[in-house]
C-alpha cells in the first residue's frame, strides 16, 4: 500500500470493487529491471495490464513491448512506442493479423512450429522470428502448460525453415513459468538454448537473440527474492553457457512490472455459516473470479488481504465472490485467516492486484460490471 | 444445428468467433418445460444468457425471471416482465441493491442465513423470502460447491427469523447441480424439504412455495433424458413427500432453456506438434477460456465440435484457445478427436453454446474482443 493509493481511496470514496495502480511503483520496477539486467532490453508484457497510462509511462522510460494481439500492438504504438520496439510474442496468430502487424511496422515475431513460420514468411516477409522452446515450469506458482513452445530438438529445424523462407532466424525464447520463485530456473533453459545456438551455427545460421521470457515474481504472501538476485543468477548462467559470446537478451516482465503497483478495494457483502456447528465462516466479497480475481483459479495466486481490524484475533474463512456461480469461490481448500470482528459492509484491500485483473474481468457475468480501474 | 443458424452463417460471413442463437429453439424449450411441469412456474435464469431478444421472447411467453443482480432485474423489466414475475435469487446481496430491487417492485428474495434475512427485512420490508438449503450435487457435470444454501437443520431457524422480522417466510429452494444428468436427484432434496415444511408448520409458519432450482441439462456429447422424464420424476417425488398438499412450485432453468439454442462458429488458427515424435496434434482455435468457453474450466463441459470434414479419419488433439495464457487450454487431460485432414483457417462449429458463453467472456484479455452474439 502506497501513500498515494491510500490518499486516492480516502479522497474518492465510491461503491463497487475498484483497482488503483500507482505509476510511481511501476517506474521503480522498470528501473529495478533495467539496473538488474543492464545489458538486457525490457519488453513489458502488455497483457498483464494494458492501461494506457502504464504503457505511456513505460514507453517514455524506453521500454519495449511484448504483445499478444493486434489490439495490443495498436495500444503500444498509441502509447508512443515505435514499431521496432514491439514484439508480436504470441505463437498463435491468424495470418491476417500477422499481415496487419506487418503493415503497422512490426518486424519481430514468435513462432514454435513450421506452420507458423510459413504464415510469417507469407504475411511479414523478411521479418525476424524467434522460436519458443518448451521449458519445465517447476518452481512457478502459475506453472505453464505445454501450450507454447516446441521440444528443443525441433527448434533448430523450425528456425532453419524460417531461414530457408527468407526470414531472419533471430533467436530463441523460453518461459520458466509465471511467478517463478526460484532464480536458478533460468540456468537449465540457458544450457539447452546454448546447444541450439551451436547446432544452428553448424548449419551456417548465427542466432543473435535470447528472449529470457517473464516469470519474475511479485510479492504476494510469500517473500520473493529481489530482482537483482534474478539478474545476477541469470547473468552467471549466461556466462556459464555462452562464455564471452553472450547474445543480445530481452526479458518480458508483466506481473513483476505492475503486480505490486495495484491494490483492489472491495467490500464484504455477507458473512455467514452453513450450519450452527461450523467453525469456518463464509466471507463473500463484491469481487470474485469473474470480475477481477480470475487468478485465484485452483487457488493458484493467494493475494494478501488487509482489513481495518487486522490487529484483532483471526479465524478461518472460506472466501467467495458475489456471483450466483458455484465455482466463484476464491479460497476454500486452504481457508483464509481474517479477523473475527470483520463485519458486513467493511472495506478490504487486496494487494498485489496490478497484474492480470482488469482485462480478465468478464463483460458482465451475472450482471456485475467489469472491474473499475484508476491509474494515478 | 438448425437450418436458420446454418442460413445465417452462410449469408453473413465474418471473421472472429461468434455465437448465433435461434429463438425458435428457445421457444420450443420453454414450451417443453411448461408442458413437462404444468403446475410449475418457470423462472428463466437470466445469467445463462441475458440477450434482450431472449428475455423479450420469454416474457411474451409468460416466463418469470430468476435474477442475480440489479442489472439483471432491470433487463427483465425492460423486456416486459412485471416486477411480480421477478425473483432476486442471489443469496449474496448488498443491502443497497436489495433496496434498489425493492424500489423497482421486486418482492421475492433468496436468503440462506440470518444476516441476509436482516438485510432484506430492513431494505425490502414485508417481502417474501425463500431459504436455500444445501444439497449434494452428485450426478451433475457442473457440481455446486457449498457456496449457496445452509444446512437443512438451520433453514427453519432462518425462516422463523424472517417471520419474526415481518417478512413472509415463503418457501425453500435447492439446486441439484448444473447439467444434472440424473432426474432422480430431486427426490432426496424434496424429502428434506418436506421435513422443513413440517418443522415450520409446528412452529405456526406455513410455507407456500418450493423452488426446485435449475440443473436441467442440455445436450452436449452425452445423451440426456428429455425434460418430460425430469417432470415425471419430480412430480412423483412431490407426491411421495407432500401427499395431496403439494405447494406452489417454481423452476429456474438456464442452460436447459438456451444451451442447445446456440452455436459458436470459430476458426482454426494453428495446428502443430510439440516434437517430431508426438502423435497428438495441438489445435488452437480463435476462441478459448477467456472469450467464451469459460465452462471448459477443469474440462467440465465438453462441447460437441463439428467440422466440414467429419467423415474423415479422426486423430487425437489437444484443443486450446488463442491467448498467451497457458491455462487457456480447453481439452488436454482427455484429448479431443478431430479429423486428421482439419486445416489451419478451417471453420468449426461448437454446439450447445447458447448458455454461459457471452457474459463469461472477458472485456479484452490479451486484446481479444468479447464474444460476438447474434440472436435470430
UniProtKB/TrEMBL annotation, chains A, B:
Pfam families associated with the record: Orn_Arg_deC_N (PF02784)
Active site residues according to the UniProt entry: 324
GO molecular function: ornithine decarboxylase activity
Pathway(s) this gene product operates in, as recorded in its UniProt entry: Amine and polyamine biosynthesis; putrescine biosynthesis via L-ornithine pathway; putrescine from L-ornithine: step 1/1
Stored PROSITE patterns: ODR_DC_2_1
Gene Ontology process terms (BP): putrescine biosynthetic process from arginine, via ornithine
Group of enzyme by EC: lyase
Reactions catalysed according to its record: L-ornithine + H(+) = putrescine + CO2
Orn/DAP/Arg decarboxylase 2 N-terminal domain mapped to chain residues: 25-258
Gene Ontology CC terms: cytoplasm
Protein EC: 4.1.1.17
Cofactor list: pyridoxal 5'-phosphate
InterPro entries: Ala_racemase/Decarboxylase_C, De-COase2_N, De-COase2_pyr-phos_BS, Orn/DAP/Arg_de-COase, Orn_de-COase, PLP-binding_barrel
N6-(pyridoxal phosphate)lysine: residues carrying this PTM: 47
SUPFAM superfamilies, sorted: Alanine racemase C-terminal domain-like, PLP-binding barrel
Source organism superkingdom: Bacteria
Record's keyword terms, sorted: Lyase, Pyridoxal phosphate
Family: Belongs to the Orn/Lys/Arg decarboxylase class-II family.
Stated name of the protein: ornithine decarboxylase
Species name: Roseiarcus fermentans
Amino acid at each position: 500500500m502506497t501513500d498515494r493509493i491510500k490518499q486516492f481511496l480516502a479522497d474518492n470514496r465510491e461503491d463497487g470493487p475498484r483497482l488503483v495502480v500507482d505509476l510511481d511503483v511501476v517506474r521503480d520496477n522498470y528501473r529495478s529491471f533495467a539496473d538488474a539486467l543492464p545489458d538486457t532490453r525490457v519488453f513489458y508484457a502488455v497483457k498483464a495490464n494494458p492501461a494506457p497510462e502504464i504503457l505511456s509511462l513505460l514507453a517514455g522510460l524506453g521500454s519495449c513491448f511484448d504483445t499478444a494481439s493486434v489490439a495490443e500492438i495498436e495500444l503500444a504504438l498509441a502509447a508512443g512506442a515505435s514499431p521496432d520496439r514491439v514484439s508480436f510474442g504470441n505463437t498463435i496468430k491468424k495470418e491476417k493479423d500477422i499481415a496487419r502487424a506487418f503493415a503497422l511496422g512490426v518486424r519481430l515475431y514468435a513462432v514454435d512450429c513450421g506452420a507458423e513460420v510459413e504464415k510469417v514468411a507469407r504475411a511479414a516477409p523478411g521479418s525476424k522470428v524467434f522460436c519458443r522452446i518448451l521449458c519445465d515450469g517447476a518452481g512457478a506458482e502459475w506453472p505453464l502448460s505445454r501450450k507454447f513452445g516446441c521440444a528443443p530438438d525441433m527448434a533448430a529445424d523450425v528456425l532453419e525453415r524460417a531461414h530457408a523462407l527468407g526470414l531472419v532466424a533471430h533467436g530463441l525464447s523460453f518461459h520458466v513459468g509465471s511467478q517463478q520463485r526460484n532464480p536458478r530456473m533460468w540456468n537449465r533453459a540457458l544450457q539447452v538454448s546454448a546447444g541450439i545456438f551451436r547446432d544452428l551455427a553448424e548449419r551456417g545460421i548465427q542466432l543473435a537473440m535470447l528472449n529470457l521470457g517473464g516469470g519474475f515474481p511479485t510479492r504476494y504472501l510469500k517473500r520473493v527474492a529481489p530482482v537483482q538476485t534474478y539478474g545476477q543468477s541469470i547473468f552467471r548462467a549466461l556466462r556459464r553457457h555462452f562464455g564471452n559470446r553472450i547474445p543480445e537478451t530481452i526479458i518480458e516482465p508483466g506481473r513483476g512490472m505492475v503486480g505490486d503497483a495495484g491494490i483492489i478495494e472491495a467490500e464484504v457483502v455477507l458473512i455467514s455459516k452453513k450450519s450452527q456447528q461450523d467453525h469456518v465462516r463464509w466471507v463473500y466479497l463484491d469481487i470474485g473470479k469473474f470480475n477481477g480475481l480470475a487468478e485465484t483459479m485452483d487457488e493458484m495466486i493467494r493475494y494478501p488481504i488487509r482489513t481495518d481490524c487486522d490487529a484483532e484475533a483471526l479465524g478461518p474463512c472460506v472466501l467467495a465472490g458475489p456471483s450466483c456461480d458455484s465455482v466463484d469461490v476464491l479460497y476454500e481448500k486452504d481457508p483464509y485467516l481474517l479477523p473475527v470482528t470483520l463485519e458486513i459492509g467493511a472495506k478490504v484491500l487486496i494487494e498485489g492486484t496490478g497484474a492480470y485483473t482488469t482485462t480478465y474481468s468478464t463483460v458482465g457475468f451475472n450482471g456485475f460490471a467489469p472491474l473499475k480501474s484508476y491509474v494515478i
